[in-house]
Queue: 3 jobs
Job 1
Amino acid sequence: MKLVIFAGTPGSGKTSVVKYVIQELKADFKLFFAKFDCLKTEDDEFIAERYAIPTIKKLAGELCPDHYTALEIPKIIKENRDKDIILLETAGLCLRCSPYIKEGLGINVLDVISGNPDRYGPILTEADIVAISKGDLISQAEREIFRTNVLKVNPEAKLAEVNGLTGEGVIDIVEFIKAFPEIKTEKLTLKHSMPSAICGYCYGNKIIDESAVRQRYLAGKELKNLVPNLNCGKCGFKSCNEFIRAVLDKKAKKNQCPFIKNK
Amino acid sequence: MKTEIEKITILPGVNKFGEKEKFGKIDVKKGEIVAIVGPTGAGKSQFLYDIEKLAQGDSKSKRTILVNDKTADKELRFDPKRKLIASLAQSMNFLTDTSVKNFLTLHLKARGKKFDSGLIEEVIKEANEITGEPIFSETNLLNLSGGQSRALMISDVANISTSPIILIDEIENAGINKEKAMQILLEEGKIVLIVTHDPVLAFNTDKRIVIKNGGIVKILKTTLKEKGIGHYFNWLGNYGLDIREKIRNGEMIEKVKLFCEPIK
């Protein structure tokens, strides 16, 4: 089985590229498509309907969508052992996280009119393939300058110039996917660590005030030590963090968590 | 070492239905223009992909592309820093907010070349031969008209870009002298591929490759008569540009020329 992660800012053309990749691969491989987003997406339904492949929708809700993606990857793999290729599209909101994994192929769909690539973080610098989109809107000269700038921040990247409207260039990505090795190990590793997200705001604090942030953080941390951190969902919430926030907001009772209750 | 491309040769592969393409080989030499025609979805992208990747029977179409009559070096096929085909499409715009001169310098730098004021002047001079409205080195890129932008893009591709093959995709609506533009690209020793159904461009070629159902079905050699027809349409287009300039200058136009001057 192979895992391919597509990351890129909203509007960069990720879904369009994924569409054409699926079209090229689906005759020869058993595919699965997972779409991650924050609040809402219909891309999974669209892909399922048009290409008749199994898909899943993953909404991060109160969680950081990239951390959530990393948490969910093992589950997706476990449930799809019979597939040849799992295609995963991230929410694409954060340039810093973009959870590429060492054992999978990381593809950054990068809009050529999105400015100088040197301000992008791991979403670009850690990608195996940079799919440069919307190149047909700018001059050849600017495209050449852009390519040079991409290679400055990610010299190892393979470049593909893609057109999300016509599918031109997607064939390059398909060849890279075909040539990429399968996942052989049970243990997956992130290519880079994600930034820490541990403060009162992570536990749902809204008051802009130092002591309020600290108080919320301490209360959150206390609960964090009690919950199993397995995101098992038995409390009725998608993740332990979401449950902790709900308890602190007095929207849930502590012993809704079976682990706390049984202690 | 860089391989200079003098000629590419396309050897037949198969169409969408797996049937062998019916041609011996197609040679395209440096300084030649070839039109690619055919309905949408016919397999134009695959054809260009085969050339860009110098396919060795390993692509979907199973075509083989030779460079200078030989199998292409690995180095030429897989170097990510290099692109064989530079392209000009219809909806292109400049987005960089800087002067023409600064921009060309930036492009030279991106290509790993040193600042060369002579070359930059040459790019602007040739761009001005393609468009009617003069471009100055201090003009801001964003203030260029459609025709000026396109003229500068063509001259830039001819002079600064190192890609030996230029692909032009449906460029007809621009306010430029198309024959002159082609001439400049060819003088710089490029191979020019044009995807077009515009008579000026399609007839201003050496041959036309007709693609249908994923396969090359015909190779038409452009005849002298067709070249004449193309020239007539080019004259008509340029005459239209003259009249546009007159309208821009607030002149009245109540008489038109009906016949074109013969090919020089």
Job 2
Amino acid sequence: MHRELLAFRPASPSWAISLLTVEPFRIKSAAVKSDGVVLTGVMAELRRRQLPAGGWAALRASVQASVESTSLAALAVGLDDSDEARLAQEFLVRVQNPNGSWPAFSGDDRDGAWVTSLASIALRDIGMAIPARLSGIHWLMKCEGKEGNWFWRWKFLTTDRRVRFDPDKFGWPWIPDTSSWVVPTALAILALRQAPCSCGGLGDIPFRINLGIEMLMDRACRGGGWNAGNGVVYGSTLAPHPDDTAIALLALNNRTEHPVVQASLKWLERTAQTLTAPWSLAWAILALAAHGRAVAALLTSLMDLPHLSGRDDTCTLALVCLAADYPRSLVALGVNL
Amino acid sequence: MIPSRRSFLVGSAALAAGASVSAPFFLPKYHSDRRAKRSRVAILHLDQYSQRIDEVLASALRLFRMAVQGKSVVLKPNLVDYSPRNAINTHPTLVLAAAESFRRMGAKCVIVAEGPGHQRDTQLVLSESGYQESLRADAIPFVDLNRDELVRTQLRASYMRMKSLWLPRTVLEADFMVSMPKIKSHHWAGVTLSMKNMLGTVPGSRYGWPKNILHWNGIQESILDVCATIPVHFVIADGIMAMEGNGPLNGKARPLGKIVLADDPVAADATCARLMGFEPERIVHLREGAKFLGNISPALIDQVGEAVTLPTTPFDVVPEFRHLYAG
């Protein structure tokens, strides 16, 4: 298995594209010639599962389009221009809520969910999706964990101390009116980093990103890594999770030297070698690559896992494809290499 | 003295206003009373997870004369996360034995379904905890409830503020739901048994990991609303190796050597609570559940198999739940 970065070229000069993307260069063609047969099979299965309306369901037998699956699959099939990607992007624009957020799935309530970040990321570089993406980013800026309210901050600081965390450092919840958690915060940071501008009420983006980063640092587990967001409960240390750790590390890719990030990278590097679950392993590959760590052996392990294309979970298939082509995937996720 | 028309009207209006304000405190918060006249519970003694579970479970299940022939059975174990050090999850040996028994009893299909509340990578929990290989070897389908198709479902009780929840189709379409908890102390709910186990049906893809909306609405209240909405037809509780202290993840393993079977989730959990050394009426969701979901009183429970024996030392709990101790 080896990978080739065939060519770099500057981003499209068109105003629409430059409004959509903040990083100066795109990796146009980074081919990972890993186990081609396995990868081709996984990609073919992913394409086969696309629903007629353009979305993807979370599980193989389902017909209910999920925005998480659709966003990840759109990123995976969109690494190369394709009809599937265009159909998926149109689907995402179509199901957006009037308030700018995205629902968890097609037919969901209209109040919005954590997948808004993923949908915004999946729509980067799409001219027709600029308004949709901007309203998604506006919604993210209005959305915050319950700790954003002084009353709940005061409660967590004074009477509810069972979970160790600093409520002054908050990020994003899974759904509105709940607390901040690691994964939605990390994904929101990635989405906001790709915001086209800081105009029109988006001037606070750097502040929210920094607050989110402080929250991630605060919620890290002792010894490195992250789980959902409970590092210590009733004085007991809870164990980190590989996927949560990886997603947090992606959001912290410009803080590699921070001691928490260093400890987490060490933990993830060690843990990834033993992983047999493709979802976690694929996230780990993306995160370690984002911090400049070697991932060739992990990619081999990923492709060697049995029944890869037969996995029930569509997000896992998409993640495998993204990990296999991690240089371009990281750019798509807004990670500056 | 005859009241004037004016004072009569004022008095009537005040009475109506008072009634509308106070009614929610007196009216039941559940839609229907599902309690059976009597419930049946069996306590089985088993010191370890072994092949013997198959025969012990199969013969004990026969005592309940369940009508599962031609029905779709969903087994809902408690899979939260994985740690090689802790007895966090319902043991796969027990789940496989249950699946085999229900198949032999003529079930149309037996599915294992769960939506882990803490770990997003369900496949990782399955493979690390030994489920994946066993399920594949026995050709038992598994549905990840965190990612299943969802159906908006009106809640059949109103203990929490929500009127509806999006719930997995697999659970809603099951003919026969079996809750298979791990017997554990729990730092937010006091205990996690068959009723608390049903919170695992609330989908993470919609509500997150953890399902934080349930914490904000009150854990006890959420348990009641979910159990009112998804009927539990049978309980097989894993207490061979239980957990005490800071559960559901970080408690200490506690060998209890019991499996508890019941045709009523309240009776099952009340029995488990007694085995743990707790007073069931002091557990909020059991006390409330006894009003409409099942029986809590030993006088209404037919005990088969072993009798309930109180432990010499009750299960350890976090300080907030020390009031649960019996006596």
Job 3
Amino acid sequence: MTMSRRSRVLVGAAGAALGAAMLAALVTGSERESGFYAVAEVITGESFIAAGLVVSARRPSNRAGLLMVAVGFAWLIRDIRYVETSWTFTLGMFFEGLQWLILAHLIVTYPTGRAQDRLERFTVGFIYVYAVPNAFGTLPFDEARDCPNCLANLLSIDPDPGASAAVRTGLVICSIIIALLGLVCFLRRWQRATPSGRRMFTPVFAGALIAFGVAMVGLVTVAALEELPSGVMQLAFLSLSTGLLLGLLRGWLDRQALSQLMLELGRASTPGRLRRLLAQALHDPSVELLYWDGRRRTYLDTDGRRRELPTSSAQRAVTPLGTEDRPVGALVHDPLLLDDPVLVHAVGEAARFALENERLQAEVRAQLEQVRASRARLVEAADAERRRVERDLHDGAQQRLVTLSLALGVARDRAASTGDEPLCSSLAEATEEVARALNEVRELGRGLHPTILIETGLGPALESLAERSPVPATVAVAPTERLPDTVQSGAYFVASEALANVAKHANASHVTLSARHHDRKLVLEIADDGTGGADPARGSGLTGLQDRVAALGGQLRIASPIGGGTQIVAQIPCA
Amino acid sequence: MLVDDALLFREGLARVLEDAGFEVVAQAGDATDLDDIVSSRQPDVVIVDIRMPPTHSVEGLEAAKQIRAEHRDVGVMVLSQFVETHHALELLSGSSEGVGYLLKDRVSDLREFADAIRRVGSGGAAIDPEVVMRLLGRRREYDPLDELTPRERDVLALMAEGRTNQAISERLFLAPKTVEAHVHRIFTKLDLFPAAEDHRRVLAVLAFLRGAAE
């Protein structure tokens, strides 16, 4: 049985109205009580109603909330005896003690509000069986009080003192039995509870024990002295309601832990750590986190082992993460946690986010790795192709042109020896033309793939670039060892393009190249003392450089403050 | 002796050289067994292409260095489609006796080429003008070469190419005495130790030119 929001509002309103009425009766009646007593009395009742409503709102399946509300109403209604008519007094007396019995029911079935086994069912049954003689039995045997102003107990049959004492003794014994049974049931529940369940008992312990003590002492002293110090009962009751509320809402307070969980999920680097965080947030060290492996269509535990999803039972409950057609994983946990579905749901969602996030990240990483690898392959392929073309050029056209110029030289010598001046000069012209063609092919080849790079490595190749730079260039440092081909040619082309940029735009008087190889990384730096203001976004060769370096898994940084020269730093990893 | 994997060029060059009065004692398509052939045929000069099978990189250069180390009396002329100052200096490292490093297309000027071979054969040096030009033409922020007169620069360039004072004086139509005076002034201005012998100074000049860039 659950309460709708509407009925909770109605019950709350009724409770408040009843409380107000009772306060009025307490303060205005002729049997006037002190203001402190009146307020303590009403607050005690209201606290149970309010706590019960909160519990049933937070934990709809939990019946303890309803019991708390009932305790509150029973507590308040008995104050009706202060309304000064005989029948209200009789009614008040009729309800007296009911609050204890419902409270006993609550304690016996704490924290679910439902009796679970035979002992509990027997105890609850005994409590309500006892309620009948408690309500109907006491009143007739109540001795008529001999005060003139006292309100009359309408049901009193004016018993003889012996009979009423016997009835009272019987009832006291019964209530002691109930107290003991309640204590046993409560302790049994506590003992059987899982660690996370036990957390709900701790706050109740203090309150419950105090209240039971007070109940027993109270019953005994009422029997003996007819009097109890003012407010003590209320205080005991109040502490108990607080304990119950705290215990039942412990999950609610765990929202703190939940927000902490959300904060830490981002840092949960390993599945094991994620599981620990979830266990912490749920206060259930036994929580298991299972991953759904979509490819093998099975669940895996945090160590990657295959796991069957257990069926929900009294021992373990399963909360699936994700939707039915797209599972992400599952939480296996203490079924007691289901008592607080909001918490389990929230933690489950958090876990789902984390898993989903992890999966997406892994996916993106894999895709990125693929793209990176394919980009590197493209660069490699392009490099290989350039080398091939350069070699074809070298072994083909260039070689033929050289042979041709040799033949032209021979022809010119012959023409010279026969004294044919015109032929001689046109052959000389042809030779020059071939020389120009050779020069062009040479430059073309160098642009495609500088042979010196494979011949001698990066250092001499940079030196060679510096030699041909129109802006005075110095190579400050260069690695002497050979680096992987793609790294070398990447660095070479960056330097080459950077030097060309310096010559074209920088208006510099000097440029320094340095290449350092350490920490499995090549750091190439080209710095000029020119006008600066180079902007890769404006689409110069710099963008191409960035692409090329990025393809090798490196980074290219360009610092070019206006008037402060340009500094290009390329970092290329050397695997 | 000729070593080049480009058969057509090699054959052509052999013919040209024979016409020019050289005797081609051996030809080879790669640098393997070069040591044995040099030992058995005792050429005065080995002309070797820098880039040959199997790796098409700097086999010729390696072969040249090996010959220089093991056959001190054999001159080595390295031909290349590209010239790199790095290679030139590596080839010259230690000594510039009997070393040549020329662009392959220099063969079109037969007389000049023949002259270079003779120079190398007689223990001199022949460095490609392109290498020298690159070193001389290299832009520097504080250039010691600015101290030199244009004529002194010409003389310096020819010295770097490995030419003798005699050859320089013929080229520049100067009296040998004048060339000597230029050389002396250059060495003084550049603060170089004056090397008396023509072929020894090549290395000093090239190293200076390269070093001045640093």
